[in-house]
User: Fold this.
Amino acid sequence: MYALVVEVDNREEDPEEGRRGLREELAPAMRQLAGFVSATFMTAQERGVGIGVVVLETREGVERHAAGFVPGAEIRPGVRVTRTEVLEVAARA
Assistant:
């Protein structure tokens, strides 16, 4: 399994709208991805930081989706990608 880790600057997004978008839009969309295993989205809105971790069965699947999350890209109004990593999942608990 492989994980796509995306860090964003979400300072300019309304906190409630951001949470709603994660729960009602992004999480359901991630569950539809081929090879989906899990997804977790975290935020520290007071610091303007959000992190998403999406785990898929294959590296190819993760890399395909990572291409859309380049640093500097605005992925929704007020949310910009600051860092993206593709990592192997070495263990889960």
About this structure: Residues 2-88 form a domain with the Alpha-Beta Plaits fold (CATH 3.30.70.100). The mean pLDDT is 94.
